[in-house]
């Protein structure tokens, strides 16, 4: 299935459920009183992560994609100082470095590195920033409100992305281009 279609369906099917959950948590007014623009920005970060991850799947083995995505904890530890002002100790850095060695063992990098390997790494980076951001802005915001904004961004962005890219891939014949986006 096209990536934009999968993301749009995810948002479309999740939104009614999250709308009901927000209503149960205190009413739909929560959607606009809980820092909506910060939550929308976080949704864009997560949309980038989600899209890059799914773009990597047709081009890389599943094990490689998942292993490279598991670099997210490295990014979280590295960026927690910048985003949250947290200091990480040696033990945490050691654990993250050992995890990264595990990623390298699974991926077994060779001389034939390609740009496609950057897709799951970029997904991990955006995911890490999104997770750190929600820790910073999410205090006192109900989880359904956060999820509602995120899935709204998924739905809107995937429709916009498909609309922009559709003219570029009208003659897609299944060859080696990026037609799987649509």
Helix and strand arrangement:
Blueprint: H1 3-25, H2 30-33, H3 36-56, H4 62-69, H5 72-84, H6 90-107, H7 118-137, H8 143-165
- Beta-strand percent range: under 5%
Can you tell me the overall shape?
A: flat
Secondary structure category: mainly alpha
Q: Tell how many strands the DSSP assignment holds.
A: 0
- End-to-end separation in angstroms reads 8 Å
Count every helix, treating DSSP H or I runs of 4 or more residues as helices.
8
Radius of gyration over all CA atoms, rounded:
18 Å
Largest sheet: none
The topology string of helices and strands comes to HHHHHHHH
- Mean pLDDT reading: 85
Q: Characteristics of this structure?
A:
single chain, 182 residues, mainly alpha, 0% strand, flat, disordered C terminus
Q: Would you mind describing this structure in some detail?
A:
The chain is mainly alpha-helical. It has 8 helices and no strands. The longest helix has 23 residues. The N and C termini lie close together (8 Å).
